[in-house]
UniProtKB/TrEMBL annotation:
<dbReference type="InterPro" id="IPR029033">
    <property type="entry name" value="His_PPase_superfam"/>
</dbReference>
<dbReference type="InterPro" id="IPR013078">
    <property type="entry name" value="His_Pase_superF_clade-1"/>
</dbReference>
<dbReference type="InterPro" id="IPR004449">
    <property type="entry name" value="SixA"/>
</dbReference>
<dbReference type="GO" id="GO:0016787">
    <property type="term" value="F:hydrolase activity"/>
</dbReference>
<keyword id="KW-0378">Hydrolase</keyword>
<protein>
    <submittedName>
        <fullName>Phosphohistidine phosphatase SixA</fullName>
        <ecNumber>3.1.3.-</ecNumber>
    </submittedName>
</protein>
<dbReference type="Pfam" id="PF00300">
    <property type="entry name" value="His_Phos_1"/>
</dbReference>
Amino acid sequence: MRHGEAQSFAPSDAERPLTQYGEWQSQQVMAELAAQVGTLDRVWVSPYLRAQQTWQAVASTLPKPHLVQTMAEITPHGDEMDVAMLLQASAEVDGFDSILIISHLPLVGYLAATLVPEIQPPMFATSSVLAIDYDLQAKRGELLWHQFAPDAE
């Protein structure tokens, strides 16, 4: 998931908060997806304020995860190969089946293309969510769906 719409200016990029619209669009997209989520073993959230606020906005909509972690590796300029290897290793060691990652462009697009080599890095609108079924043995995923947040009416 990419975080919701954020304000343009703050003392630093890491401190940019969500707008009210960004909070709303995140809640709306997760309300539509909540029935598809089932269980949620892990949540990894970027330490940037807008990603943390996105998680806070959607947490009550989703099944309670077994573990929520703030991950320094998933900031906007994180390395997609490092994150993919961390994801693979964590799933193998900890044995979890499902994870929600709340991060940023360009990382989420590059990570998706790393996990599903047949696709080009997708553009993630704010609050959009992409689902991947990942095979740990084959070390590759299949794109299931890409959900975009609804527009305000």
